[in-house]
Amino acid sequence: MDYTHTFAISAAGMSVERTRVDVAALNLANAQTVQSADGKNFQPMQVVARTGSADAASFSQLVSRGMQGDGDFALDLPIASVEPSNASPRQVYEPGHPFANAQGFISYPGVDPAKEMVSLMTAMRSYEANVAAMNAARTMALKALDIGG
C-alpha cells in the first residue's frame, strides 16, 4: 500500500464524519420546526456509510486484500449517503398554536436532541482521529524520505 492510499482512507473518513456533523446540525436546527415554507413537515435525516464494493468482506479480508493489492482500492472506501430517518413525529398539545389540529396537537419532527448531540460529538471525535491518522502517515512518509535521501 502506498502513502496515497493512506491519505485517501483518512480523507474518506473525514468526508463521512463531516456529513454526520452537517446532518446532526440540520436535525438540531429543525427540531422545533412545525412547517417549512412549502407546507411540509421536516423529516429528520440520518447518515448511512457504505463501501462501494458489493461484497460484504470482513475487516481481516479487507486488510489482506489491501496488503496484496487485490481489487480496486477506491471501492473499499466509505461513501456517505443522507437518508430520511423513520422517526415518528412528536405530538405536543398546544391548542392555541395556529398549526394545531382539531384536537389541539402539533406535529414536531421526531428529533431526539440527546441522540443528535451524541452523534455530533462522536462525529467530531472521529474526524479528529482521522486528522491524527493523516498527520501520522504524513510524518512517517517524511521520515522515510529523510532515511532514504
Tell me what you see in this structure:
- With 149 residues, the protein is of the alpha+beta class.
- It has one domain (3-31, 45-84, 111-148).
- It contains three helices and four strands.
- The strands form two sheets. The protein has a two-stranded antiparallel ribbon with strand order 1-2.
- Helix 1 packs antiparallel against helix 3.
- The protein is elongated, with a radius of gyration of 22 Å.
- It starts with a helix and ends with a helix.
- The mean pLDDT is 86.
What order do the helices and strands come in, and which of them pair?
Layout: H1 3-29, E1 45-51, H2 59-68, E2 78-84, E3 90-93, E4 105-108, H3 113-148
Antiparallel strand pairs: 1-2, 3-4
Helix pairs in contact: 1-3
What's the mean pLDDT score?
A: 86
Q: What structural class do helix, strand and pairing data support?
A: alpha+beta
Regarding quaternary structure, what we see is single chain
- Largest sheet, described in full? 2 strands, antiparallel
Provide the succession of SSEs.
HEHEEEH
Specify the number of helices.
3
Shape: elongated
What is the CA-based Rg, rounded?
Answer: 22 Å
End-to-end distance, in Å?
Answer: 20 Å
Helix content: 40-55%
How are strands sequenced across the largest beta sheet? 1-2
List segments where confidence is low: pLDDT < 50 over at least 5 consecutive residues: none
Indicate the proportion of strand residues.
5-15%
